[in-house]
Design brief:
One of its GO terms (biological process) is fructose 1,6-bisphosphate metabolic process. This protein has two domains: 182 residues, 3-Layer(aba) Sandwich (Rossmann fold); 111 residues, 3-Layer(aba) Sandwich (Rossmann fold), CATH 3.40.50. Helix content is 43%, strand content 18%. The structure holds 6-O-phosphono-beta-D-fructofuranose. 6-O-phosphono-beta-D-fructofuranose (F6P) binds next to loops.
């Protein structure tokens, strides 16, 4: 392989830049030309493609977001869109691409590979919801952003003796809520993967109040439902004051943690090795701190599972 491309797609995540840097530098190290495809699959279809040099990725390892920009493309879900993309790649003489993103991005990479164009996926999403890898790039940074917010909210919750409902990202995955709730000492964690009863949430708060607890933190994954509604239900059942904090997109920004930078560097470089070895339709990941690769289709056919033993632990520790 003499020319490869790299793109970032879907929701951005801190560490994507470190992954782009690793792809570019690893490829150039092996005398392979690298092309940046801007704005994800949108830019692929319209030919927003530019050759990258060693210096193109200088000074980005510590920056959040993605220098290649990102997008969610409806058109690329169609066969016509995918063929347009392949046409552009052939025009530039690109023989394989590295796709950095989440499950939607993997679907695009799967389609391109099925049409005969080699792709390798690198898991970049704060949601940590790609089957086959213990961690995705950006999760650790997002988690630390949430912890910082919880710690600050805890201070004011204590001063005012209030119950805070903190909504974090994750439409279908509860990893951010679960890990942040456990690390932030939340009294209750609500995630889409585990059923809950509002009566239980309320009676847990009640028990806490009876033994003199003056404030509480409840962490809710956005996929569970509205934090505002949960707050209202608590206020109408108990005589306590609640406040809601929806953390939103601050969770997607910021300088990546050392963990995310190292993970991104390892995974980005491994993706290039796979393309060099003629492997296609593969995704890279990390399991028990070892780099692994598996078929993208296999990953997409599996359901991401949260570690429910951690959920049980959080319940026991916040008794
Ligand atoms: O997939 C990452 C993610 O941040 C999810 O946690 C969230 O539900 C979604 O993206 C938000 O997407 P957007 O930025 O397009 O509103």
């Amino acid at each position: 392989m003499k020319k490869i491309g790299v793109l970032t797609s879907g929701g951005d995540s801190p560490g994507m830049n470190a992954a782009v840097r690793a792809v570019v530098r690893k490829a150039i190290y092996h005398n392979i030309e690298v092309y940046g495809i801007y704005q994800g699959y949108t830019g692929l279809m319209t030919g927003q493609i530019k050759k990258l040099e060693l210096g193109s990725v200088g000074d980005i390892i510590h920056r959040g977001g993605t220098v290649l920009y990102s997008a969610r493309s409806e058109e690329f879900k169609t066969e016509e869109g995918q063929k347009k993309g392949i046409e552009q790649l052939r025009k530039f003489g690109i023989e394989g691409i590295v796709v950095i993103g989440g499950d939607g991005s993997y679907r695009g990479a799967e389609k391109l590979t099925q049409h005969g164009f080699p792709c390798v996926g690198v898991p970049g999403t704060i949601d940590n919801d790609i089957p086959g890898t213990d961690f995705t790039i950006g999760f650790d940074t997002a988690l630390n952003t949430v912890i910082d917010a919880i710690d600050k909210i805890r201070d004011t919750a204590t001063s005012h003796e209030r119950t805070y409902i903190i909504e974090v990202m994750g439409r279908h995955a509860g990893d951010i809520a679960l890990w942040a709730g456990l690390a932030g000492g939340a009294e209750t964690i609500l995630i889409p993967e585990a059923d809950y009863k509002m009566e239980e949430v309320i009676s847990r708060l009640e028990r806490g109040h009876e033994r003199g607890k003056r404030h509480s933190i409840i962490v809710v994954a956005e996929g569970v439902g509205s934090a505002v509604d949960i707050g209202k239900q608590i206020e109408s059942s108990l005589n306590i004051e609640t406040r809601v904090s929806i953390l939103g997109h601050i969770q997607r920004g910021g300088s990546p943690t050392a963990f995310d930078r190292v993970l991104a560097s390892r995974l980005g470089a491994r993706a290039v090795e796979l393309l060099m070895a003629g492997k296609e339709g593969r995704a890279v990941g990390i399991q028990s701190n070892k780099l692994v690769d598996f078929s993208i289709s296999e990953a997409l056919s599996q359901k991401h599972e949260v570690d429910l033993s951690m959920y049980q632990l959080s319940t026991e520790l916040s008794i």
